[in-house]
Each structure stands twice: as structure tokens, then as C-alpha cells.
Design goal:
7 helices; alpha/beta; Spore Coat Polysaccharide Biosynthesis Protein SpsA, Chain A; single chain; four-stranded mixed beta sheet
């Protein structure tokens, strides 16, 4: 089963994250689907989020990043990336990132975890070319690492929590139920 369809309290992960993202004050929200896209799309409950496809999803996470970026490329000054499997995100966290980017429009706004840093992260337009030139299975974390002098961090203690294994899913269920 695709992780986007994992169930938590009667809802699926992609709909939970979609609802969280929908609470943000942004121009438009886009969900990029890759593997199992038709199965996932058939279960999506939100209508205010545009669904687009990473046709070459086998090339890794950066394919989805590029598809999302290129959907907006000319129309935006910054882009906020988040993942469906980071179940500890909140609308409040995303709005803090957006607010911090308004205060610091030329800086990357990234999350600082208890164990490292990464996304959700917002990138100003000056980084779009660098994002588009990333290798096949390299996410935006490389850009964050290479630009530490131009980053504002937002504390997101639980940002390292994601779902990559069945054990991760079981742990997430315990956290989301409580």
C-alpha cells in the first residue's frame, strides 16, 4: 500500500496533510503524485488542491520537486516544499515558515529538527535554478547544506519523524492517536 494511503483515525495520510496545507495563506497548493498516482488520486478528499503528476517518478524525489517547481516557475517568488510522510507537521508550523519568509524574503526558511534539519522548507526564487539542477535522487537538503549562511531556521523538534517502514507507521499511529 502506498504510504499516502496509510490510515490514521479513519483518515488517510494524504488527506491529513492536505487539510494541514489548506490552512495556509498561500497562492495555490499543489500535490505532486508519482507511483500509484491513480490509486492515490481516487482516495483524495480535497478539491482545493491541484493534483499534478511526476511522470518519471522512478528518478527519485527530485523528479517530484522539479515537477512542482516547474508548475509554478514564472508565477511565484518562493516555493514551500513538504512531504506527505512527515506526519508531525501542522498548519501553525507552515504559517510560521511563511511568515518568516515575509520577514526574510531572500533567505531559505528551513526546519531545524532535534536530529538535524530539512523540510518543510521555503526557497526564494533565486534558488529555483539550483533546485532544477539537482541530481536524480537528491532532495533540497543539499541546497540547505550548501547555503547555511543564508538560512533562517524554524524549530520543528519532531521534523525527523517520517514514515519509511512499518515500524515508523506503527509509531506514527501511537503519536497521532494520543
Amino acid at each position: 500500500m502506498p504510504k499516502q494511503l496509510l490510515e490514521f483515525n479513519g483518515n488517510i495520510l494524504i488527506n491529513i496533510i492536505g487539510k494541514i496545507a489548506s490552512g495556509c495563506d498561500v497562492k495555490e497548493i499543489v500535490c505532486v503524485l508519482g507511483a500509484n498516482s491513480e490509486e492515490i488520486k481516487s482516495r483524495i478528499a480535497f478539491s482545493n488542491i491541484k493534483i499534478i503528476y511526476a511522470e518519471e517518478w522512478q528518478n527519485g524525489i527530485n523528479e517530484s520537486i522539479k515537477v512542482g517547481l516547474n508548475y509554478f516557475r514564472e508565477d511565484i517568488n518562493s516555493i514551500l516544499f513538504l512531504l506527505c510522510d512527515q506526519y508531525a507537521i501542522s498548519t501553525d508550523l507552515l504559517n510560521k515558515i511563511i511568515a518568516k519568509s515575509i520577514e526574510n524574503p531572500e533567505h531559505i526558511i528551513a526546519c531545524k529538527y532535534s536530529e538535524g534539519f530539512g523540510i518543510p522548507a521555503l526557497f526564494p526564487k533565486k534558488y529555483f535554478s539550483e533546485i532544477n539542477n539537482l541530481g536524480k535522487d537528491i532532495g533540497c537538503k543539499k541546497i540547505i547544506k550548501n547555503n547555511l549562511d543564508n538560512i533562517v531556521f524554524i524549530d520543528f523538534y519532531d521534523g525527523y519523524l517520517d514514515i519509511d517502514t512499518l515500524d515508523d507507521y506503527e509509531s506514527a499511529k501511537l503519536l497521532l492517536i494520543n
